[in-house]
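ok trying again, last paste got cut off:
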Amino acid sequence: MAVPSSGELSLKGLANEIDDNDYSSDGIQGPFSLKDLSDGSVDTINTNNGSGYRPNGSAPHAMSEWYTYNHDNDNTTSWSSVPGDFSMSVSGLTPTTANKTIQLTNASGNTTIQCSSDDVGGFLRVAASTSSTPSSGHAQTATITVPDGNFVTIFLQFELSDVSAFSKSDGTSVRDVTFTNNSVQNTALQITCTQGL
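nice, full thing came through this time. structure:
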């Protein structure tokens, strides 16, 4: 278990992460110092963690340099905290929106979020950001640059628009959402979209 991403950190927890690859284990006994943990004297710092997610090895050493550090990080890109399937419906000129988040471990470069399309159920688009929930820039395929690192939260806003000018669009369909980073895809999210019913 990696070092938490926020909150108060303990020196013993940091030592446990270095010694047991588990911040919450209780296996190590002191003495140990923040300097020796941070500069690699106890064990080499795992550089598979992005530079913003590991101690920099230089004085002055700070506990805050350790947030989300994972000593046994193998640099494999993966998705977690994928939103559960949900439904959206729209009727009229005002689009419907839904805000969600997803976590990305060992991010690198661009991330794409693609919504599948269908002839019925309205027009589904998404906007994405790594800083806060976006409210504009919706597209069927959104592409954002994520910071390299071992833990990134992506904020999403899905938007469903009524395309009732085309009456055949009324109805319900299930849309797949595909998340891709570093050639690793996640296709677990499905959104049930309804227009005009």
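cool. The mean pLDDT is 89. The chain has two helices and nine strands.
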